[in-house]
């Protein structure tokens, strides 16, 4: 059920600085909350996010419980060549999701 | 004894609560008068020390955009921009965000390269209380630059009871 929203321009000119927006649906349970009966709700967050552009890592983030649920991250990169952006989210309890987006660079 | 008080034997009395609250208020007032330097909780300092590893952190170059007043601490939009040519010789290596009053001092670490073109990241974070946020950027020459922003939070995040 986990799903990603990715916003990458489909075309760009070589050398353009493009913005990439990503959103992954995830509860991001902090591990600091309690139920009404006083038990701690165990932490369940995404801890790492990586973006690769044609196999090269262009952006990486470490996430902490202070990230909002459904973590949104936006960043920039230079459009160098046509190809594929691959996104990877890694988290607690073996959470692992990937997504990709293509770009045509002219 | 009522049934309710037996279920919660250590429930504070109204008198205890008032005494504690009064003490806390006095404590808060005296903190404010310590001096112009902000009473930064030690955990945030320690977390920053872990990142900068003893190097000096200078104010400047970094811009931390966050609303000064947020209604809902569960999702606070935040943008960090670092002034940098982002060339191979002079670029931002990483951006780190810290807070004072959440249960944990770290918010996020972001690693970029000259391929970013622009040293700017945006995200949405949780804030448990009214507090000061700090953003620190590490440059390719090994220097650290920082910016701070004050945020007033009316509805706190992170620690409320789940319903």
UniProtKB/TrEMBL annotation, chain A:
Residues 9-101 form the Sulphur oxidation protein SoxZ domain. It holds the Pfam family SoxZ. It comes from the Bacteria. This is Thiosulfate oxidation carrier complex protein SoxZ. It comes from Tardiphaga robiniae.
